[in-house]
């Protein structure tokens, strides 16, 4: 287990067994607090000196170095002498804390509060309860008077107050208004200027049958705001007062979404027989919605999907099985499967269903099965999957079914990686998806279309165009509650920084690490595995730096393409040459061009002409694109530059 750090209260650290780490004196803790506050960025030594002392004494720089050395010993007691520090690292003019995204309570708190909005009320209530328990006291409590903590303490405090109000709202959504009253009353007493707190308290009182108390609370809020701040209540408070006076229908808990859902679910359970075909098909509809609600929902939908397919097959009804398989039309953008074994099982079931369907009719269901085969075979390079994608698209166009066509175009996209340089074709697929989805109200596929175009315009070196699509993704994701889309736009913006030669290396690296932190718990292992390490390797290569050589680096599935460069960085030339000879062709996915460029770079460094020719021939169709940028997550610069270097080296032979 990793060392954990706490700043939501007095500054503290705990070892892998949860035992407190002895941090020595207040200035040791101040150095640690200052590094936590920098969020993995480098803090120059002179900045630390200025923050630790109003009037720095002689030898202050040496004192800071002594504090850092003591912190390193405390945090990494088993580190070998002269071995590089893993947590507090020296970089350039100062130090940075390379803590994991889940090891700092404030960082986890911030992410968990943001994630809460996407959860249904029961899960949101429990999630926020655990999140609020992270607070041990005021943030950076032992450095409350320091100017360098002021902005961060204010931001974290505001975030906590927002979380308290989210917690109160979740109770109301669940019909637990009476138990919310006491906590909301205390919250408004402590923070009387927060209008949303007054609104929630009044609503809780009204839903508890206390209309008079609700009106009294709203009038007390008005008096405080007018007399002490000189401002009128906002429109939500004013409207609530009128609604309470007139017993507006929408204030009733029975009309809250959670209660509507509960009543409908109960009616379904009463009237639809257990084990019925209708119940099984309805389950797939639920799983389809669950998959887009966030990481937990995606993982659970993935687990339950194969169970639903197996249950359908057990009933011995091929048409039902085909509908259950094909109904899971969840838009997909990343070209590496999250669970290849499960994907293979789904493909096998789809093939069995296709074989069992009557020879004539059922064209829409057949197209959905073919599109499923194309989607679930992503990254495999399967000729069968490419044929399935084309056939599904032909059927959908013939039938004129917009939703079906959108699903099959997703399959066409996934099977457009049989060679490099096909960004223009994917751009056209994205454009059609956007136009089709806009006309027919297909929100999920509209988001997908913009993500595809974000990738394609990046590959084609059109930053303004890609920026436009990223903004549209964020807008649509917020409107239609698609929280996972944020993972891709965060990575895109980090890639934009990493691909800009004017941006310092440290800034670009920090942006990539920040994006990587949001992969934790994303529910997308096919995206997360090895990606942070690969993105940093590409950044280092662009800046002329050697590959990272730490044994703990997680290369995931990209290890074969990274290994020659890692061995070269360790001066193990013979082993690097042998590793390069074993490098396979990259998988048929979004990172194909980037992996071929890494192969070509290793070949140039080792003088391996066979590997140079392999890389040159594979990359030639992509000569006008940016290497890797079509993924929306990393870049190695223009493919043309790599081709020029390979061509020049081969010509000199």
Helix and strand arrangement:
Blueprint (H helix, E strand, L loop, with lengths): L3 E3 L5 E3 L11 H12 L5 E2 H8 L7 H16 L12 E4 L2 E4 L7 H12 L4 H12 L14 H27 L3 H14 L4 H13 L3 H19 L5 H11 L11 H15 L5 H14 L4 H20 L3 H9 L13 H17 L6 H14 L6 H17 L2 H13 L8 H18 L2 H17 L3 H18 L4 H14 L6 H13 L7 H4 L2 H12 L16 H11 L3 H10 L9 H15 L2 H11 L19 H13 L2
Helix pairs in contact: 1-3, 2-3, 4-5, 4-6, 5-6, 6-7, 6-8, 7-8, 8-9, 8-10, 9-10, 12-13, 12-14, 13-14, 14-15, 14-16, 15-16, 16-17, 16-18, 17-18, 18-19, 19-20, 20-21, 21-22, 22-23, 23-25, 26-27, 26-28, 27-28, 28-29, 28-30, 29-30
Fold and architecture overview:
The chain is mostly helical and 653 residues long. It has four domains: 1-152, Orthogonal Bundle (Arc Repressor Mutant, subunit A), CATH 1.10.10.10; 175-271, Serine Threonine Protein Phosphatase 5, Tetratricopeptide repeat (Alpha Horseshoe); 286-494, Tetratricopeptide repeat domain (Serine Threonine Protein Phosphatase 5, Tetratricopeptide repeat, Alpha Horseshoe), CATH 1.25.40.10; 496-651. The chain is 64% helix and 2% strand. It contains 30 helices and five strands. The protein has helices spanning 26-37, 45-52, 60-75, 105-116, 121-132, 147-173, 177-190, 195-207, 211-229, 235-245, 257-271, 277-290, 295-314, 318-326, 340-356, 363-376, 383-399, 402-414, 423-440, 443-459, 463-480, 485-498, 505-517, 525-528, 531-542, 559-569, 573-582, 592-606, 609-619, 639-651; strands at residues 4-6, 12-14, 43-44, 88-91, 94-97. The strands form two sheets. The protein has a three-stranded antiparallel beta sheet. Strands 1-2 form a two-stranded antiparallel sheet. The two termini are 52 Å apart. The model has no long low-confidence stretch (mean pLDDT 92).
